[in-house]
Structures are given as structure tokens and as C-alpha cells.
Amino acid sequence: MKIDRLKAGYRKKIIINEFSLEIAKGEIISLIGPNGGGKSTLLKSISGQINPLSGSVYIGKEDIRNISLKKLSKRMSIITTERVRTQHMTCRDVVLSGRLPYSDSFGLFNDTDQKAADNAMELMKISDLSEESYEELSDGQKQRALIARAICQEPEYMIMDEPTSYLDIRHKLELMEVLRKLSSDGMTVIASLHEPQLALRISNRLLLVHDNGNIRISTPDEVLRTGVIKDLYGLTDEMYETVKKTFI
Amino acid sequence: MQKKSKARVAGVFGILTILVIASFLLNLSIGTVKVDLTDIFRIIFTGAGDEKSRNIIMDIRLPRALMTVILGGGLAVSGFLLQTFFANPIAGPYILGISSGAKMAVALFLIFVVGSTGRSSSFLLVLTAFAGALIATGFIILISSHVKNMASLLAAGIMIGYICSAVTDFLIAFADDSDIVNLHSWSQGSFGVSMFFVMMLSKSLDAFRLGENYARSVGINIRICRVMIIILSSLLSACVTAYAGPVSFIGIAVPFLMREALKSSKPVILIPASFLSGSVFCLISDFLARRIFAPTELNISAVTSLFDAPIVILMIVRRYRSHEN
Predict the structure, then answer these.
(1) In whole angstroms, what is the distance from residue A120 CA to residue A178 CA?
(2) How many independent structural domains does chain A possess?
(3) Of the candidates B42, B48, B40, B47, which has an alpha carbon nearest to the alpha carbon of residue B65?
(4) Measured between CA atoms, how close is A114 to chain B, in angstroms?
(5) Do A166 and A206 fall into the same domain?
(6) Is A235 inside any structural domain?
(7) Residue A204 belongs to a domain with what CATH number?
(8) What is the pLDDT of residue B257?
(9) Ramachandran angles phi, psi of B224, nearest 5°
(10) ipTM score
(11) B123: Cβ–Cβ under 8 A, 6 or more apart, which residues?
């Protein structure tokens, strides 16, 4: 994937200033930065949900805007921060909906789809919740179901907006393991994370999304060495000392 | 799908099919003149039988029963589509004022076009109803882009319904609308076509259940899908309204009951299930409308309201309990 002089925002309002980046297959890229800095906007532009103000996102040689939604849906899956409300869907139904790109024209699934959903649920440790009503799951369980959904879509790219929200510390760490495994199988993950310590642990590279819309591309080593986190979040010395302890 | 839910689906469809056939035969058989089942079969399949019974069955009851099957099914499916579109289980063609919009357009057409030229055709009638339905739907969509709140949207729909009904009442003061009961094969044709397209939409509707962004991420073109939903639901409710006037609540109560019975919201199952049970509801309601105060005939909407409005209230209460909002 190649991000070429991308500028993102809504209408006239620029939220992300121009930047370019080439992402290798299987890389894990984390977006970190303060609330309201534009992480979600950037992710939406990368996944084609909103059109960039200028510049392009290429998958292979093709501009993402020229790839049909049908084709794109087999190559890219997303996780958004919006809350999903369903009626009469089991946890399994929600996970299976990730298989719609592969289903027949009535939205019916075959054994391969069922198997993919089973595997994804196992990976996210929600197999026993399979037949539970989605509405009755806890927030954390719902989030894991949505992640399982994105996984069973079997994409090359997974674009995740705050995938760790609602998860408790154990499930956060387990998710990091899952992402690491998926990336070693060749899946590229681009995720915004609220926890710099997690981002530093699993990412190949980090995008530091500043309040003013500037993007700085960095590596975990560099972030640790230079202490840019302090500026990024506008921390006082004292706060930064506390945060730094969690990085070890 | 797991085994248990497969058995449930098969069971529900089995029961629905039996109910459709039973209520259909009931409507054919019972009326001012009672016709035996054996006679009905003989008349329909061999054309034999005495003149009088044959006329009653072939000219009056059979067309009416067939129409009722289609109307009930159409209303239920139209309701299901609107519920998916507005992500709101209480949406339906009647409550959102779409049926009333169609009725108003029909009344305008009957008075100003038919009244002055004396010509009418069922094609034009359905087309006019469709235009009315689309205009009412347009207003609802316009309002829904400003208010996200479900309750306000419904309130707006009910108001639009009132406005259209009021205009219709004014118009009716100028002319009578006896032309409305003018059954024709065209609407059945257009109906079949729209049902086909509705089934083809089931995958998109399936994806819609998780909201637009996720639907898009599994390859659904949101804009086309939205337009299709609106056109089809308007067309279905227009077909119904052109021939039977606004019929209340079937569009809400039936899809709700089917979701509960099937414990599922998968469109590919729910669309045919809603259609069948909409037919059953309409057949039974029509039967009651004809028979309760026979020979005086009630408006079918009176009967459907009586049975379906309590179901809708139950549904709102249950929703309130489970979501507390």
C-alpha cells in the first residue's frame, strides 16, 4: 500500500496535512496522538470511506477510488468506533457478516464461510458466545466479535479504529498477540491505539498524529529515544515520567 | 445456520404455508352465499358447477382473495424495507405517511384527470400512487437528515400522514372515489417484478444490519442500495394503496412477529416470511371486515388496526425494556 501526498479532512477543513508513506505487506502501523487530532479521519481516508482532499491511496498500482467496492471488500476490512445496534443477531451472525463478500447473491453462507467464522471466533476467544444474542454481550465481548468479523473477512489489510476500546487489560494484550500473528501470516494492520505502550510493543512503525494535523513517521526505538510522546500529547515532565514507566 | 434454527425456520414456513392456504380457502368459501370446498376445487380446476357459484368464486371471491394475498404481503415487505432503511423497527408505510401520500395522489388523479377526461387505467392509477408515495418518502428522508432521533422521525411521519389525509378529505368532498375499486392485472405484474428485486436486495439488506459503514466495507454500494429500497418500498405500498387505500399497521406488526418467531433478522428468510404472514393477516382481516357486520362491509384498516396496533404497542414496550431508551 502506498499513501501518496495524502491530505485528509472534510470539505474545506483540512485535518491531516499532506504526507506520504509506503507500507510493506505484513507491517503493523499504529496511529497514536491526542483525541481529536484526526486519527479517525486519516483511517477513513485510507480505507476509502471518505475521499481525500488531495493525494491518493494506492493498493498495488491501483488508486483505491478505482477499485470496485466488491473487490476492495475482499482485500480490506475495517473496525470503526461506532456502536452497532442489531436486532435478533447472534454473535455468530455478526461475525459471519464479514463473509458477505464471499457469499452468494442472497447472502447465504457455505461451509467455508462457517469455518472461517469459527476460526476467527476461536482466535478472539468468543467461541462459547457464538449463539448468544449480540445485544446481550458485554461491550468488550461485542468489540471482540467485531474484530473477529474483520478477521474472517480474510483481508490483506485491516484498518482498525481504536480496536482496544472496551477491552480489559488481558484482552488488550491478547489482541496484540493476535495482531502479531496475523501480521506474521502476511496481513497488514493499520490501527489507531490509545495506549502508546501497546503501540510501541507491537508496531513496526508509528504515525504520530499531531493536534495541528502534522504527521510524523517514526519507529518504536526512535520514539523511546527521543521522547516525542511528551510533545505529542502535551505532557508535563512529571506526567511523562509516569507514562515512561509503562513503556518498559 | 445452526441445526436448531434451521428446524425453526422450516417449522415457521410450514405453518405459514398452511395458514395461507387455509385462510385463502376460508375467504373463498364463506360469504353471503356459502360454497363447499369440494365445489370450489371443482369450479377452479374443471370449470364445472352451477352458474351462480361459479360467478361468485371466479368473478368476485377469487380475484379479491388473490389481491388480498398480494396486498398483505406487499405491505409487510414494504414495512420490512423501511425498517431496514431507517434502522427503526417501528417504521412502516402507514405510520410514515407514505400510504397517505399515495392515497392523496390517487384522489388528485381521480378528481382532476379522471373527473375531467373520464378516462382511467390501472397503470396510471398505480403510477400516480407511486408518485405520491415517493413524494411522501422524500419528505421523510429530508426530515430524517435533520433529526436522528427515532421518535421525532415517526412523529414527523404521522404528521405528514395527517396532512395528506386532510387534503384527501377535502378532495373527496368534491368527488366520490368509487373508481378506486378497479382491479386489474397490471399491478399484479409490477408487483411480481418488485418482489423479485426485493429478493435480489436481500444480501445488501443483510449487510445493512450493521450500519452503513460496515455494509460498505463488505462491498455494498450504499447509495444504489438506498435508492432501491426507497423505490421498491414506495412501489409496493403504492400498489396496495391504489387498490385498497391505506391499510394500517401490517407493515410494522408482521415483520416484528416474524423476527420474533424466527429469532432472526436475516433478510433472505424474513422477506418471504413477512410476505406469507402479511398475506395471512390480510386474508383474515378481510374476512372479518366482510363478515362481522355482514352485509355491511367494514374498512379493512379498521380490522387491521384493532389486531395489529396492540402488537405494535407491545413491541414498543418490550423495546423500551430491553434498551431503556
Answers:
(1) 10
(2) 2
(3) B40
(4) 8
(5) yes
(6) no
(7) 3.40.50.300
(8) 92
(9) -60, -45
(10) 0.90
(11) B184, B186
Judge if A71 and A162 occupy the same domain: yes
Domains of chain B: 3-323 (1.10.3470.10)
Q: Kindly state the cell numbers that stand for A84.
A: 452497532
- Statement to judge: residues A63 and A179 lie in one domain: yes
Flag whether A109 is in a domain: yes
**pTM, two decimal places:** 0.87
Q: How far apart are CA A40 and CA B83, in angstroms?
A: 29
What's the sign of the alpha-carbon dihedral B153, B195, B185, B286? negative
Q: Which of A76, A106, A109 sits opposite B202 (nearest CB)?
A: A106
CA distance A169 to B131: 56
Query: For residue B259, which residues of chain A lie inside 8 Å, CB to CB?
Result: 87-88
Same domain for A67 and A188?
Answer: yes
DSSP string, B186-218: HHHHHHHHHHHHHHHTHHHHHHHTT-HHHHHHT
A57 and A2 in a single domain? The answer is yes
Instruction: Indicate if A9 and A55 belong to the same structural domain.
Output: yes
What would the DSSP string read from start to end of B17-57? HHHHHHHHHHHHH-SSS---HHHHHHHHHH--S-HHHHIII
Q: Which of residues 123-182 of A touch B (CB under 8 A)?
A: 131, 135, 153
Q: Are residues A38 and A144 in the same domain?
A: no
Residue A232 lies in a domain: no
**C-alpha to C-alpha distance for B73 and B75, rounded to whole angstroms:** 6
Residue A162 in domain: yes
Look up residue A141 and give its amino acid.
Q
Taking 80 as the threshold, does the pLDDT of residue B221 lie above it?
A: yes
Q: Which domain holds residue A201?
A: 1-75+156-213
Cβ neighbours of residue B121 under 8 Å, at least 6 residues apart? B184, B186
Q: Determine the residue among B150, B210, B321 to mutate to test chain A binding: the one whose Cβ has the most chain A Cβ atoms within 10 Å.
A: B210
pLDDT digits (tens, 9 = 90+) for A22-36: 999 999 999 999 998
Query: Average pLDDT of chain A?
Result: 93
Cβ pairs bridging A and B (under 8 Å): 85
- Say whether both A196 and A147 belong to one domain: no
